[in-house]
Amino acid sequence: MIRLQFDADGYSVVYNADRVMLLAKEFALLRFLYDNRNQVFTREQLLDRVWPLEYPVERTVDDHIYRLRKKLKSWNGLRIHTVRGYGYSLTLTGIQPRNHPSLHDQEVQDAVHGLFRKYHLLGQGDSIVALAEQQEQMGFQMSAYYQMYTRFVQADVAWFLKQEDFAPADRLYWMLLLYTCTAGVTDQGLALCERALASGLLSSDQERELRILNILEAYVENGQPERAQEGLPLTFKVMVRDDLDKFVMPVALMEMYMHLVANHMEKAAELSDRLEGMLSEAPYLRELGRYRLLRGLMLLRTGDVDQAERLMDEGLVTLDMAKQELLKIKAVSQIRSFLKLCGPYPMLEEKYAAQYDQLDRDNSLTLRRSELRCWLEQILFVA
């Protein structure tokens, strides 16, 4: 894949020793699109990001895109697409990676894949994304799993919808979770989860994770904590049978959330104490962020609003630090649902609604939601 080097001092960009001089805003626009490649942005979003304190017209974006295309036309691997009626997207294609000796060294490949697995366990989405971006320079092959997981943690719905390198069945699990995490778990979303379990299209590991964890949390978010409670005995049985230590904290977090929604505060407090102990020994960022959020929800139940807000915000900041964009979207959605459940808290509702709206704009969620649902329905109901 093509790799660009940006010189912020001279507003120039380099590829393969070919340096192109840009104007300041051309440079800023290209860098933003490059850093967020394969995502589609409206003209308004680009104006907000590249011209934040100015008031140019939308035509300004079109003019800068035109000039960038003209200056970079010799770089065949880089394309800035016009998405009719919406905006622009930058993609990188057509450049073959260098033939590093390390590509043929199994020890190097195993070491890099070990890093991916470790960062995944630690919940460090930022480290996974950074490692993936060094693929060409370091000379390694990414597994299909981590090619998709890297996009998944970034909530890159557009990439999954446009991706043709992986069969629909390979993308199904990820796209199902993207839909339920970004659209909220409606009756329709829950029906899609249940249909996926019955479809036979998921791998055995995906089917197991959806059955013993994801769908239980979906029941809670759908206002059915009692159904999640009914599913827990199977979850614990499978965890023991298959020696799934890595599921202990995620399941405990889901169970704590279930009890908070059901207003079983004593049980939620017991799980909070257990999680506190686990996280003191293994402070994984992904789980730590979710735990702080749940602690905030627990304090909200007891009426300690100021402390609740502080902890909820700490949880969101932790997820942001770990580059867990999808979990951050889901977390803000859970906060909003919980505020309605035990409110009213109008100031907090307004605050987190604004945060969700910003995440929606940043990730084009509203634009992609119906497209994602249609894709899932087509795959699952044809199957």
TrEMBL record:
InterPro entries registered for this protein in UniProt: OmpR/PhoB-type_DNA-bd, Sig_transdc_resp-reg_C-effctor, WalR-like, WH-like_DNA-bd_sf
PANTHER family: DNA-BINDING DUAL MASTER TRANSCRIPTIONAL REGULATOR RPAA, REGULATOR OF RPOS
Keywords, sorted A to Z: DNA-binding, Phosphoprotein, Transcription, Transcription regulation, Two-component regulatory system
Pfam families referenced in this protein's UniProt entry, alphabetically: Trans_reg_C
Annotated Gene3D superfamilies: Winged helix-like DNA-binding domain superfamily/Winged helix DNA-binding domain
SMART domains recorded: Trans_reg_C (SM00862)
DNA-binding region(s) in UniProt: 1-92
CDD domains given in the database record: trans_reg_C
Protein's UniProt name: Chemotaxis protein CheY
GO biological process, one term: regulation of DNA-templated transcription
Taxonomic superkingdom: Bacteria
Organism the protein comes from: Paenibacillus polymyxa (Bacillus polymyxa)
Cellular compartments per GO CC: cytosol; protein-DNA complex
